[in-house]
Amino acid sequence: MSKPKVLVTRRWPEAVERRMAEVFDLDLNTADKPLSQSDFRDALGRYDAILPTVTDKLPATVFEGPSMRARILANYGVGFSHIDTDAAKGRGIAVTNTPDVLSECTADIAMTLLLMVARRAGEGERELREGRWTGWRPTHLIGTRVSGATLGIIGFGRIGQAMAQRAHFGFGMKILVQNRSPVPAEVLARYNAVQVPTVEDLLPQCDFVSLHCPGGKANRHLINSRRLDLMRANAILINTARGEVVDEHALAQALWFGTIGGAGLDVFEREPLVPEALLGADNLVLLPHLGSATRQTREAMGFRVLENLTDFFDGRQPRDRVA
Length: 323
Ligand code: DGY
Hints:
The protein is α/β, with parallel strands linked by helices. The chain has helices at 14-23, 37-46, 85-90, 103-118, 121-129, 158-171, 185-190, 199-202, 225-230, 248-256, 276-279, 295-313, and strands at residues 5-8, 25-28, 49-51, 72-74, 94-96, 150-154, 174-178, 194-195, 208-211, 236-239, 262-265, 284-286.
């Protein structure tokens, strides 16, 4: 039997590419440049499986081609708001993602941002590298204490819980949670967390707010100017979820006018573009979408895709099927 024809849309860790090439008739994107929408339309007619990632935009129009050979989009990443899953489903194409394996590292990046903003680490490093540091003084770069503060977590799935683990056990933080569905009592009890009904209930009670909900239409601009106004004047917002969850224009205003204390962002609405107003805000720490960027996690993501694909082509239900 011939091997399924598979397209990997970006470079992956070498160990995974090597293993994939043994199992499938594999095409790699050796130039590592994002594919265009017409490349995707063409690929959907030529490959049995396409392995996209967050930099690949797959709206409904991509699925309008006359002939579809593709049977599965095995996404490299947990978030899949860049794929119109209804349109894929309409053409009989399955979609999978890679949950679990990146939860710990993504929570590490959220905690990194939280600490960096609270302790003004970005500002301090810039000052030092630019030769502006004049030495220790009692009033220099005074930040906010993290230990014992209240952290609000919006979206209490695997990554939200990994964040609670760090914040509660590492920093003695009080945890408030807002989640679409009720969180089981034993899960809340693990972190001594309290679930509140709405985002509006959560925001005014928190020193830090960390976003861990999915992206996509449903959560677009979940954090808007009205909700930023509900945050405490010195509170800090962290986003490692998806760029579209935060209205960047409203956030820039809140940072410039000091209606919140600061923010840390790992994701942006129009990556890799970052608005000038954000780049100029000193009380903001910016990272280039590094949540899952460790060797161990990026390899685990690739092997999880391999597992999903193998199950699919062997006639089993892939464990991470989302559509
Ligand atoms: C994800 O998994 O969704 C990350 O944001 C990209 O790897």
